[in-house]
Specification:
Family: Belongs to the chalcone isomerase family.
Distance between the termini: 60 Å
CATH class of the largest domain: Alpha Beta
CATH architecture of the largest domain: 3-Layer(bba) Sandwich
Pfam family, one: Chalcone_3
Number of domains: 2
GO molecular function: intramolecular lyase activity
Strand order of the largest sheet: 1-2-5-6-7-8-9-10-11
InterPro entries: Chalcone_isomerase, Chalcone_isomerase_3-sand, Chalcone_isomerase_bundle_sf, Chalcone_isomerase_sf, FAP1
Largest sheet: 9 strands, antiparallel
Radius of gyration: 22 Å
Protein name: Chalcone_isomerase domain-containing protein
Length: about 250
C-alpha cells in the first residue's frame, strides 16, 4: 500500500484534502461540536452534559444541564427544575433525604407551547400539564443527601406514595419489578439514582449502573406526578420547573 497514490477530489473546497486528512478533519469537527456542549460525564449507562447545569441551593447537590442514555442521542433531555425531598423519620427531626432534578425535551416543551398537540398552552401550569401528559421522554434524577439511606428506605418510600395506587389500577407487577432495582443497595451521600423514560420504557440506573427496565407508561406517569403534580411531595421542584417553563412563553 505504500506505493498507492492518494485520491484527489476533482473540485470544490475538499479538493486539496487527502482521504486521511479528511477523516482527521471530520474527527476534529466532531470534537469541536461536543466541546461546545460542555463537559460530558456520568456512569456507563448514562451520559451527562454539564452546560446549563444547576446547583440545588438547599442541599448543595449539582445537576447537569442535560442527560442522555449512553449510545442513544435521541434520548437526551434538558434540566427543567430542581429541589429537595424532606422526610420525617421516627425519633429524628425532618431530614433532607435527597435532591431531585427533572428533565424534559425542550423540543417537546416548544411543541406544547405552540399547540403542537392540539391545545395551546399559554401559562406555565398549562404548559407543565401538557408536557407531563404528552412527553415522549423524561428523566427524574435523585441525588442522595442523607448518608444512612438504603435501597430499602427508598423502595418503601415510593411504595407508600404510589405503590397502592398502581396496584389498584392493575399495575402492581410493574411496580414490584421496578422496586427490585433497590434490593440490597446501600447508598452514600452523593449516590445518583436515575429514572430514565423513553416511549414508555422506564430504566433505573444507580451511579450509572443499569439495574432494570420496565415497560409501563402508568408507572412513569405516577413518578412524574409524585415530583411535579398538584399534590407533589417536592413543591420546590414544581415551582422551579414552572419558573423554567415560563421562559418558553
Amino acid at each position: 500500500m505504500s506505493g498507492a497514490k492518494p485520491v484527489e477530489v476533482a473540485a470544490g473546497p475538499l479538493a486539496r484534502w487527502r482521504p486521511a486528512s479528511l477523516a482527521l478533519q471530520l474527527q476534529e469537527n466532531l470534537k469541536s461540536k461536543l466541546g461546545k456542549l460542555g463537559k460530558v460525564g456520568g456512569g456507563k449507562g448514562v451520559r451527562e452534559v454539564s452546560k446549563g447545569g444547576k446547583k440545588e441551593p438547599k442541599s448543595g447537590m449539582s445537576f447537569p444541564g442535560g442527560v442522555c442514555l449512553a449510545g442513544d442521542r435521541s434520548s437526551c433531555v434538558d434540566l427543567a427544575g430542581v429541589g429537595v425531598r424532606r422526610k420525617r423519620l421516627a425519633g429524628i427531626a425532618a431530614i433532607t433525604a435527597y435532591a431531585v432534578g427533572v428533565y424534559f425535551d425542550n423540543g417537546d416543551v416548544a411543541r406544547q407551547k405552540g399547540g403542537g398537540f392540539g391545545v395551546r398552552r399559554d401559562t406555565p401550569e398549562k404548559l407543565l400539564d401538557g408536557v407531563v401528559a404528552n412527553t415522549r421522554k423524561n428523566v427524574i434524577r435523585l441525588v442522595v443527601v442523607f448518608p444512612k439511606a438504603t435501597g430499602k428506605m427508598i423502595s418503601k418510600s415510593l411504595d407508600d406514595q404510589i405503590g397502592d395506587k398502581l396496584r389498584a389500577q392493575g399495575h402492581g407487577a410493574c411496580f414490584e419489578t421496578f422496586t427490585e432495582a433497590f434490593q440490597g443497595e446501600k447508598f452514600r451521600k452523593g449516590t445518583v439514582i436515575t429514572f430514565a423514560s423513553k416511549n414508555g420504557m422506564l430504566t433505573t440506573f444507580i451511579d450509572g449502573r443499569k439495574k432494570n427496565s420496565v415497560k409501563s407508561t402508568p408507572l412513569n406517569r405516577a413518578l412524574v406526578d409524585l415530583y411535579l403534580g398538584q399534590d407533589t411531595i417536592t413543591k420546590d421542584v414544581r415551582a422551579d420547573t414552572l419558573s423554567s417553563l415560563a421562559g418558553f412563553l
